[in-house]
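Lab notebook, page 48
Experiment: co-folding of the full assembly
Goal: obtain a model of how the components sit together before planning crosslinking
Operator: M.T.
Materials (sequences as entered):
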Amino acid sequence: MEQIIVVINALTFILFAASLGVVIARIKGGHLPVDTGILLSLMVFSLMFINCSNVLEHLGVTALFDYYEDFFDILVPLLFIIFLDSIRLHGDIERRAANERDLGAMLEERNELLKEIHHRVKNNLQLVISLISLQRRHQPLDEKLEQVLQLTENRIFSMAAVHETVYQSRSYTSIPAGGFIRSIASQTFQNVKGARRGMIGMVYEIDDGVAIRLETAVPLGLLVNELVSNAFRHAFVGREQGTVSLRILRDGVMVLLEVKDDGIGMPAAENGGKGNGATLGSILISNLVDQIRGTMETVVDRGTTIIVRFPM
Amino acid sequence: MYEMNEIMALAFGCIGLVILVFFLRKRFVPRFTFLLAAYCCVLASNFFTVAEGFFLHDVFNLLEHTAYLASGVFVLAGIIRYRRKPS
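Observation: model returned without errors.
Model output:
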């Protein structure tokens, strides 16, 4: 009987030793997390110790290990429960990491889609501009109608410029204002006959650090277009030379937009918002200022200065 | 004759088993069949250790060591079976 028990114990020892070897190999190969592997190793070691104690006791070598056998007997369930919990924790961490990866991929996809939408909107608006431009050039039109079409083109361009800036920017909550405002003002400047002749100059003072919310961008673009276009069309009537300056600066939590000309000064009718095309522009300006929750101030002194303040 | 430390080891093993069953039912911990079987074998071995002090000493002694051998087989099988993708 004793011999059978010794053989059984020897086999058990071989099995536990092999288990310990496999655990160490698993840790080294990265198939088992280090902390979990250590817990499992300790558990197998505890079982090995109990087994060794039995072997030595039955061989009659020593009963010394028997004193500590019960300690390891109690340690086995504790280590086993902690080992299982460690596996659960690692599973949770891996699942969370996978979820984060999925969310990141979804966010990336959403951003790409948004970018694509803004790109297509901008392209479609460009197409509308081209169609109007073609229509304007292919058919002889009276000056008034041509001017109206030109204004419409400029307004559509303002919207397209905003969409262009949005798809080029990384953020969809706020975009840098400098680029598209400069682009809109420059386009308006190019389309004014006087400017083409090089007699009216345009001066920019744009703080490139100004970033505005997306919902403010389109009305702001249209507003800049209206203000600059009004200045070019009305400020230099009967004059050969002049300068329009555009300033956009950060003023605390507000943004300051200033369009100034050194022309003849705004007539009273322009301020009233009644009557012809110019008045339509004034109504549009007033509505756009309301849309960006801003305030507008007009100063007529050796030209006209329009100051708009709105929140960032 | 029985020894108090053997009974204590058996008691702790049983408490551990109760906690394990509770955790497994609540799905707090993963279900490793082989390792759980190994744990049950260790517990059976503890039981046989206590039992051999009362009656059938030789039979329970043999069963105690056989249960340990079985736990060794289950531990090795459980460890070989458990594998995750290298990080």
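Interpretation: Chain B has a mean pLDDT of 86.
Next step: discuss with group before ordering constructs.
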